[in-house]
Amino acid sequence: MAWPVVAAMAAGAIANMYAADKQSEATKQATEKERQARLAAQAQLREQGKLTQAQYDKAIKDINDYYDTRVGLGSEEDVSKFKSSIEDYNPEDYVYDFGDFNYDKTKEDFLNPYYNQIIGDAAQKAQGSAAGAGMGRSTFAAQNIARAVAQKEDELYKTALQEYNTDRSQAYKEYADAITRNQERLNALREGNQYKMGLEGDLAKDYINVQDQRQSDLMKANQDKLAAQREYDLSIVGMY
Hints:
Shape: rod-shaped
Helix content: over 70%
Strand content: under 5%
Largest sheet: none
Order of helices and strands: HHHH
Distance between the termini: 55 Å
Oligomer: single chain
Number of helices: 4
Structural class: mainly alpha
Radius of gyration: 58 Å
């Protein structure tokens, strides 16, 4: 083969080798650029992940700061008071235990204290009337005396019965009035206690509602963080 041909072939081979080297170098550079770009993107996503955590921490702090400094009506102490009031409440405490009506007097307690003297006077008067009529000790006189004594006894017992009934009625009225007064007093105490329990219940409800809202806000912040974390994780996985 002539030298010029060999030289040309050699030159072509060298040129091809040089071109291949240049292409390989360019490929390496492109691959390195892609790798660097991917690393930069991953680093950026990691920073975004850090920012998401920082945002979450700040949101949690802001929520707690808000509720800790919120001027609410109720407090945890009000919840405890309301609970104690419910546990201590007993309806029987507001029913007056009046007991049975007790009246130990009898009709004899109201008989005229001069009963015997009055009866004796009535007998003497009837006997005197009989003697004045000339009946003396006759059966008719004895009947008149017995009738006069019986009438006087009946009169005295009727008077005693009226006084007994009047006194017993008065005693029962005082007994019933005492029941009414004491029950009204207990009713007033019950109404006052129920009013107090109502206020405690309102304060306890306010505090519980605030705590429920706080928990709801914290849960939402956590859900937002988890959603951001999932999006971040998926982005990181997609880089590999």
